[in-house]
Amino acid sequence: MTxxxxxxxxxxxxxAAAHAPENTLAGIALAADLGVAMVxxxxxxxxxxxxxxxxxxxxxxxxxxxxxxxxTDYADLARLDAGSWFGSGxxxxxxxxxxxxxxxxxxxxxxxxxxxxxxxxxxxxTAEVALTEALKLWPADRPPPLVSSFAIESLEVAGRxxxxxxxxxxxxxxxxxxxxxxxxxTAASVNIAxxxxxxxxxxxxxxxxxxxxxxxxxxxxxxxxxxxxGVDAVISDCPxxxxxxxxxxxxx
Length: 252
Ligand code: G3P
Ligand code: MG
Hints:
TIM Barrel, globular, binds magnesium ion, about 30% helix, binds SN-glycerol-3-phosphate, alpha/beta
């Protein structure tokens, strides 16, 4: 039997983004050291179609580079410092390829929520390239990654390229036809912004056996409330603080 894709109630956001630069190997390693069982990271493509971890479409906020990821080759992205903006202790941290990030997660036996974060217009190829690579690398005996996205087109591609991996429909605001869309995608989860979660909404999103995840939850009391309302897992920049506040469960 395939292992449950959601083995925990607390997922580290972009690694452990409150404690280490987001979407870096340092952040993934730190999440593992903090006892986190699952991390969320964002994947997009360089100009030459190398899948790498990066949230923004542009380089300025989280690197010492300038310009758009979609117009920069990986060789140039790989030279950038993706850690100093966060703290001098992380100077020299690089923007990892998806392959480097997966290798580290596999080494630490982390589970994965892989958010397909395409640069505009690259919804199809980002999902195709990233998932083709991830399928080659992810061990069959580990829980399958949750493939999440705001981009419905990317999730459609995910259903074709990695049909055995669960898909999560990301919502940042109420979407009137979310039910039809998630049925069509056979989504295993709906991942909503924390502000969208009322007990009634959560119950609705979970109809038919779907899971409901919420992001980004950095307040431990809020996490406790959301989980009590039926949310299956929270995605947090400080997953360690949330874990400390929850009653111990072997699963976490
Ligand atoms: O997957 C949850 C969350 O990461 C979605 O928003 O913008 O942080 O990628 P964002
Ligand atoms: Mg994300």
